[in-house]
């Protein structure tokens, strides 16, 4: 056992450095970590001794593998089994309180008043995307493996993921959301989810250069042209197949393409939770005007899925028992019929409250 903090926050030179520090869990984000990270960012936002922030993950495996899925499974299992308490109970659960604070952190990252450098090395999934892809300086590497895999656990991309993916051109964001597939660093650049590509062996020197020379000079010295994106090669058929209005039609269009890649894509989507797929596609097709409104809507949807049996079942199959054989309670027809309930407004005292950070009020 170690008493080392799970978030390390220190100022080196004039750079605030945040390190997610749970390497044995690929720096999976829990509630205490989200709050500690947020506190450091808010303190540095108005600190004249801090010029920029650099966020990274401890260890060699990744920035962040997502949220604490085991804890979410406990709440999902209880709430979906009891069928009592409804939205208020979901909002007051540990998962509901975590999401509220996590989404506030995501919004503040998007409006951070100083350069926010996210080193998206290794695994960057779910909540890891939330603490990185909303920043203004996003670095990927040859080791980056980025994904929003929520549909595979009976959930919907959150942490502002539907805001990001809905704005990716040529339906590549829809593809990423409905398949839950893994993207390379080059893919992330093509999709607009990252800004700079860097060989992973340069990261140590880059961090040092940020402290000594500043962000722009460090990027000029160490960022390189990304390699070809494998996803970009598939762009044409993805644009056509994923423009359909329903998940069922998207699957049919993928099968009609006739290539091995498109067939695998159809099979992958067909294996996911129908209600999660339907809600994800609805979110992408009815995108909100800004991130704050998206996060409020994602909070509603997250609480509804916490009460739906598909989420507990999906986490069980993928993370707890690892049999990879979920038995979904929904189908595509019933999923479409229940969409309005998933997106309905919460009671006024349960809706997510957000305030945008400014230097003058932190």
Helix vs. strand class: alpha/beta
Q: Per CATH, what is the topology?
A: 2-enoyl-CoA Hydratase, Chain A, domain 1
CATH A-level architecture: Alpha-Beta Complex
CATH superfamily: 2-enoyl-CoA Hydratase, Chain A, domain 1
Low-confidence stretches: 358-362
CATH class: Alpha Beta
- Strand portion: 5-15%
**CA-CA gap between termini:** 35 Å
Count of runs of 4 or more consecutive helical residues: 19
Query: What number is the mean pLDDT?
Result: 95
Largest sheet properties: 6 strands, mixed
Number of domains: 1
Bin the helical content: 40-55%
Cα-atom radius of gyration? 20 Å
Catalytic activity: 3-hydroxy-2-methylpropanoyl-CoA + H2O = 3-hydroxy-2-methylpropanoate + CoA + H(+)
Keywords: Hydrolase
GO molecular function, one term: 3-hydroxyisobutyryl-CoA hydrolase activity
Pfam families: ECH_2
Task: Give a verbal description of the structure.
It comes from Gordonia otitidis (strain DSM 44809 / CCUG 52243 / JCM 12355 / NBRC 100426 / IFM 10032). With 362 residues, the chain is of the alpha/beta class. It has one domain (7-343): 2-enoyl-CoA Hydratase, Chain A, domain 1. The chain has helices at 31-45, 69-82, 86-92, 94-110, 127-130, 161-166, 172-179, 185-191, 203-213, 215-222, 230-233, 235-241, 247-257, 260-270, 274-285, 291-306, 309-320, 332-337, 339-343, and strands at residues 7-12, 15-20, 52-57, 62-64, 116-120, 123-125, 137-141, 145-147, 196-198. It has a six-stranded mixed sheet with strand order 1-2-3-5-7-9, with helices on both faces. A three-stranded parallel sheet has the order 4-6-8. The protein starts with 6 loop residues before the first strand and ends in a 19-residue tail after the last helix. Mean pLDDT is 95; it is low at 358-362.
């Amino acid at each position: 056992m170690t008493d080392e903090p799970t978030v390390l926050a220190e100022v080196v030179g004039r750079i605030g450095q945040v390190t997610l520090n749970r390497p044995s869990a690929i720096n999976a984000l829990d509630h205490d970590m989200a709050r500690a990270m947020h506190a450091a960012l808010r303190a540095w936002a108005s600190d004249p001794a801090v010029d920029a922030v650099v966020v990274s993950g401890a260890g060699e495996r990744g920035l962040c593998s997502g949220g604490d899925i085991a804890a979410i499974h406990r709440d999902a299992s209880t709430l979906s089994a009891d069928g009592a308490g409804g939205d208020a109970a979901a909002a007051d659960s540990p998962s509901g309180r975590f999401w509220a604070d996590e989404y506030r952190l995501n919004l503040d990252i998007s409006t951070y008043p100083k350069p926010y450098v996210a080193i998206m090395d290794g695994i960057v999934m779910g909540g890891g995307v939330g603490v990185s892809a909303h920043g203004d300086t996003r670095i990927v590497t040859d080791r980056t493996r980025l994904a929003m895999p929520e549909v595979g656990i009976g959930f919907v991309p959150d942490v502002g993921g539907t805001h990001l993916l809905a704005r990716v051109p040529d339906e590549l964001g829809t593809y990423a959301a409905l398949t839950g597939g893994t993207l390379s660093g080059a893919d992330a650049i093509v999709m607009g989810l990252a800004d700079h590509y860097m060989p992973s062996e340069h990261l140590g020197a880059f961090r040092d250069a940020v402290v000594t020379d500043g962000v722009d000079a460090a990027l000029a010295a160490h960022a390189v042209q990304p390699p070809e994106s494998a996803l970009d090669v598939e762009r044409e058929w993805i644009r056509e197949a994923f423009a359909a209005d329903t998940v069922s039609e998207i699957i049919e269009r993928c099968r009609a393409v006739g290539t091995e890649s498109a067939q695998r894509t159809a099979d992958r989507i067909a294996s996911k939770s129908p209600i999660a797929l339907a809600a994800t596609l609805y979110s992408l097709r009815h995108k909100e005007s800004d991130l704050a409104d998206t996060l409020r809507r994602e909070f509603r949807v997250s609480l509804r899925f916490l009460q739906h049996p598909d989420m507990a079942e999906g986490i069980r199959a993928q993370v707890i028992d690892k049999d990879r054989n979920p038995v979904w309670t929904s189908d595509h027809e019933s999923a479409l019929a229940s969409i309005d309930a998933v997106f309905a407004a919460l009671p006024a005292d349960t809706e997510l409250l957000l305030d945008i950070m400014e230097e003058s009020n932190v």
